[in-house]
Amino acid sequence: MNWDPVTAVLFDLDGVLTPTAEVHMRAWEVMFTRVLEQQPTTQEPYTDQDYFAYIDGKPRYEGVQDFLDARGIDLPTGEPTDPPELMTVCGLGNRKNEIFNEVLAEEGIAPYPGSLRLLDALEQRGIAMAVVSSSKNAPSVLATAGIADRFPVVVDGSVAAREQLPGKPAPDTFLYAARRLDRDPSGCVVVEDAVSGVRAGAAGGFARVVGVDRGAGHGTLLEAGADEVVSDLADLI
């Protein structure tokens, strides 16, 4: 890839820089399996396909709502302050977050080796970098992975809520990160592994959208608007 005209790279976190998508997937599976078991009628088991279809890349409560809608389960929305044991959309989202943090604390996390190589190469070129994640856990994940100091700008779920930015597939969080870096979107590259994130990048007028296939599918990411798809970020060096 020709990096000469690129002024900044805006990275998603989970599944792009760190394999936290695996931790998220396990947390969602545990949480939704328990929810489905509590339903009065028999439900099809939760699968990884549910994660990619309804949850991947979206703000947590939106992912909960979209999955429940797909299964015909009607729950009250609730409030973000709902305790994790409450059967509301927000309560379930908070329950999933609790499970995620337990797994992260127990197992830790490390960056993908290929992603670390790309970060090193971009740093040597003086290209600015930011993280744009729907997760409110992004700062703790970056710190646990030992790469927090590489990103002067982190736009996570908490920032999006504070600034009232719509989540992916809207491009607003990526555009906000570009502004925080003082870079024009036309010089920025978006790197994403989720369909919703690729769509956000494609809608934002960025120089290029790179899809990282960690399970969503090469063709699916291209169809969503990726200019190219790689399986490892080291392929971009």
UniProtKB/TrEMBL annotation:
Its EC number is 5.4.2.6. Keywords: Carbohydrate metabolism, Isomerase, Magnesium, Metal-binding, Phosphoprotein. GO terms for molecular function: beta-phosphoglucomutase activity; metal ion binding. SUPFAM superfamilies: HAD-like (SSF56784). Its cofactor is Mg(2+). InterPro entries: B-phosphoglucomutase_hydrolase, Beta-PGM-like, HAD-like_sf, HAD-SF_hydro_IA, HAD_sf, PGP-like_dom2. It is an enzyme of class 5 (isomerase). It catalyses: beta-D-glucose 1-phosphate = beta-D-glucose 6-phosphate. It comes from the Bacteria. Pfam families: Hydrolase (PF00702). Coiled coil: none annotated. Gene3D superfamilies: HAD superfamily/HAD-like, Putative phosphatase, domain 2. Belongs to the HAD-like hydrolase superfamily. CbbY/CbbZ/Gph/YieH family. This is Beta-phosphoglucomutase. It comes from Serinicoccus hydrothermalis.
